[in-house]
Amino acid sequence: MSDLLAAAAAAMGSPEHLVERSAQARATAEGIAYEEVLAAWAGGTAAPVTAAPPAPPATSEPAPTPPPPEPTEPDFPEPSEPIPAPPTPDPGALVGVVAAPPAPTSVSLAEAHRFEAVITSPTASLTERVSAAMPRWLLVLFFAIPLIGLTYLITFAGGPNCGSGGQLSVDRLTGLVENCDGSEYEVGGAAGGVDVRALVGLGSTLYAAPSSCASCHGGSGEGGSGPALVGTLLDTFPMCTDHIEWVTLGTNGFLDAGRETYGALGTTVGSGGVMPSFSDTLTPEEIATVVFYERVVLGGQDVDEAVFDCGFAQPEDDPDNPETESEEPVT
User: Fold this and answer.
1) In the chain, what percentage of residues exceed pLDDT 70?
2) Which residues contact 297 (CB under 8 A, 6 or more apart)?
3) What does pTM read for this prediction?
């Protein structure tokens, strides 16, 4: 019904409510159905009239055919108000696209939170963000920075170059050997009169040389293509002699000797990557020096213990020490 009414209104160029009222009045006056009136108006013809009485019996002469009724104008009531003309469509507008509502010229404080930004000073064109939400990246930093700092303090309690045991460090700019509190390490401070500062300084140079230890184990022993030395070195090699042997022979030297594991933990040879042999590039003294540096600076071994453990000095009561002679008892 609504489609028929809309079609009749479109054909007659009048509002639907006026067409509906006129069709109802016409149907009541003519004694026909309301739908028939709408159908006739929608098709552009007059509404059908009431059914005619039955024709008299046929005679010899045909009855004259009455002329067709002349179309009459529909009786529309006069509208109380003038009908506004439909707006002229913009030819440049896209069909089916609904335009966004215009931005308000002014908003209250409660309404301002619905917008990302508002102009608070029209003369200076200043904008003010009214959203109270914190950016996600800033929220992540609030949690990440303290966590990174705490991890750094736990991992490097004595500083990045002091190892997990808080022993000596080497100043990267000056090359000076320092205690982890920043004070200069005294020459000859170790047992046996060994110049520990010279050993650590040379060991630092050997460790950081190109294609040497730092290229695989990291500049501070944090690990890389090779395993980390900080925190695990002394567990793997409690004895300096085993450490020196591993650096001297490497992976291929151990395999050639039929040895499948290395270190006190029985680590499988080759499981942590290929350890090169330095017997062709470093002298035995240089290998012992760089091992001493790794154990003291990165591993945190006690300086005096490392001096004796790596063979740079011997305890005074060592029977194998030729300088130690037993005194004959006085009679």
Assistant:
1) 61
2) 161, 162, 163, 167, 168, 169, 170, 200, 203, 204
3) 0.46
